[in-house]
Design brief:
Blueprint: H1 9-23, E1 27-31, H2 45-49, E2 54-61, H3 66-82, E3 86-88, H4 92-100, E4 104-111, H5 120-128, E5 131-135, H6 157-169, E6 172-174, H7 180-189, E7 194-195, H8 213-221, E8 226-228, H9 232-235, H10 242-256, E9 261-263, H11 270-283, H12 306-315, H13 320-338
Length: 340
């Protein structure tokens, strides 16, 4: 039994983890819910109630039309303008100010460049409307590059031009969902840190959506961050335990070091995911090949598990500085370098 006045035992460990989590900056690099003008954004309380300070919210992906993205941006911006609890942030100073005011900061991301319709002017437009993170291709090849479930030929001329424009504008270059060659091209070309917003190590789970060690180390070499994904299919055999999440975090910590690992849960609103995902599957099964998604259903670790992840990483011997970096410090740093 621990002596009075001294820290020790399970209660002290739990208190230490709880205090660290409450004080740490928590950054979730990607939300996985389907985005439509009718999406109920009140569900963002799931993240805020879990202590998340910043969330990147998807406003379009390659399965949708580029005009859908414009409509989503219009609807979401209007909602955030009226919100008292959430704020649309364009810079790290905005993110910090939101936290000081007790609000959760949000910025937008795009999963694939079909939303740009081959026009770099649209890249400038979506940046002006709040997009701060874009990946090239969602699972399948497109006008910008290769997807992870396709024959990857690397970045196209349009994809290369987009990298330069994103660097100039201050948009995070994201390689999640992309093919191996496309990611390596992007990391070689970008003059700013590159991220994998929500990707797991393939060494622990051999799935095409996960990334190889070489991709992770190349990302770290740019100064970037790999966000560990909470999807059970990418963690293991439909495994959404916090222990599985911690295993992937620790693998990356050992591989690339504590400055290059973060969180990108890809969490969705459970009440609606079955219907929306099944609707998407019905007409676009090539985006989710049956051999890669055999159960045709998806589960994800929840934002409420991040406090438990904090305690688990500390119990496994990770330092408080390492845990703070993973929870959000690393993505906060990279956003500061790219967004300004």
């Amino acid at each position: 039994m621990a002596e009075p006045g001294r820290r020790g035992g399970k209660e002290d460990s739990a208190a230490r983890a709880e205090a660290l989590y409450a004080d740490a900056f928590v950054w979730d690099a990607h939300a996985g819910f389907e985005s439509w003008p009718t999406t109920d954004l009140r569900n963002l309380a799931i993240w805020k109630d879990a202590g998340v300070d910043f969330l990147s919210v998807n406003v379009g992906y390659d399965v949708q039309r580029w005009t859908d993205t414009v409509r989503v941006l219009a609807a979401f911006r209007r909602w955030f303008e009226a919100s008292e609890d959430f704020v649309l942030a364009g810079s790290v100073s905005d993110v910090r100010a939101a936290r000081s005011a007790g609000r959760m900061a949000v910025a937008f991301d795009l999963e694939g460049m079909n939303a740009l319709d081959g026009d770099l002017d649209l890249l400038h437009l979506v940046h002006a409307l709040g997009v701060r993170q874009i990946l090239f291709a969602y699972n399948r090849n497109n006008l910008a590059g290769g997807g992870c479930h396709d024959e990857d030929a690397g970045l196209t001329d349009f994809g290369r031009a987009a990298v330069h424009e994103m660097n100039d504008l201050g948009i995070l270059v994201d390689c999640s969902h992309c093919g191996y060659r496309t990611t390596m091209d992007a990391m070689e070309l970008s003059c700013a840190p590159v991220i994998f917003s929500h990707s797991n190590p393939r060494a622990l789970r051999d799935h095409e959506r996960n990334i190889r060690d070489e991709q992770a180390t190349a990302c770290a070499a740019t100064g970037g961050v790999i966000g560990v994904n909470g999807i059970g299919l990418f963690l293991g055999e439909d495994d959404i335990r916090t222990e599985a999440l911690a295993d992937h975090v620790e693998y990356l910590l050992d591989l690339v070091g504590p400055d290059h690992v973060g969180i990108g849960l890809d969490y969705f609103f459970e009440a609606e995911v079955d219907a929306s995902f099944q609707d998407a599957l019905a007409g676009n099964e090539d985006y989710w090949p049956r051999e890669q998604y055999p159960g045709r259903a998806i589960r994800c670790a929840a934002p409420s598990q991040l406090g438990e992840l904090t305690a688990l990483l500390l119990a496994r011997g990770r330092s408080e500085a390492e845990v703070r970096a993973v929870l959000g410090g690393n993505f906060l740093r990279v956003a500061g370098e790219v967004w300004g």
